[in-house]
Amino acid sequence: MNYLYYVVLGVLPSFIWLLYFLRKDVHPESNRMVLRIFLYGMLATLPAILLEWGANDFISALFKESFLGKILYYFIGVAFIEEFLKYLVVRSKVFYHHELDEPTDVILYMIIAALGFAAFENILCLIRYRIFEEILFVSSFRFFGAIFLHALCSGTLGYFLALSFYKPENKLKLLTIGFGLITFLHGIFNYSIMRIDPLRIEKTWIFVFLPAAIIIGLAIFVSLGFQRLKGKKGVCKICP
């Protein structure tokens, strides 16, 4: 299989979602800045892999194969690590940049970083397959699943970040709520996906329903977040 297929089909879902979310921006960001944050999001996947390996070894050593160990791994060893690294990309590369000039930009840049992260993650996922039809199916499935989840979780955190700029006295509370919410939902999503058994779907239907409900709920939340932040004053002078 030509590796170009993996790259194209790995990045294409993120690119499609990127075009969709960029259309929500009333004052478009520069292409250079969008590409920059997208690439930094892709690079964040590398330390995420190392940290997740370390977390898996550490948690396994403490809890063996127990249910608690698996839960801690899905929620802390994967979900929190990934969400925190995507946040670090935006905090370090966007927060003090002059292009961050309106509240909806915070949500948008969080989503851009997340889509970059998801693109590289998608490539790594696809290289396990050798048949083109399988690669196409998995990429299409992840388009509506894991990739969209990354964008929505980061967009949700972006909303709480934007609010914290206007309410600095509640910054810690808002960040705690934001990180707690997306870590919980991301963890539930990951755990549910791993529990789905296509051969026993009648007994594992709940693990199909939960990811779908999470995606729909977050999509509504992020859409409402965009609407609520539109019209607020610029954030360039109050960004931390």
Order of helices and strands: HHHHHHHHH
What kind of sheet is the major sheet? none
Strand content: under 5%
In the predicted model, the low-confidence regions spanning at least 5 consecutive residues are: none
- Record field, number of beta strands: 0
Number of helical segments with 4 or more residues: 9
What does the average pLDDT come to? 89
Radius of gyration: 18 Å
| Domain tally | 1
CA-CA gap between termini: 47 Å
Structural class: mainly alpha
Helix content, binned percent: over 70%
Gross geometry: globular
Plain-language structure description:
The protein is 78% helix and 0% strand. It has helices at residues 3-22, 31-43, 45-63, 67-93, 103-126, 132-144, 146-166, 171-195, 206-229. Helix 3 (45-63) packs antiparallel against helix 4 (67-93) and helix 5 (103-126) packs antiparallel against helix 7. The longest helix has 27 residues, at 67-93. The protein is mostly helical. The chain has one domain.
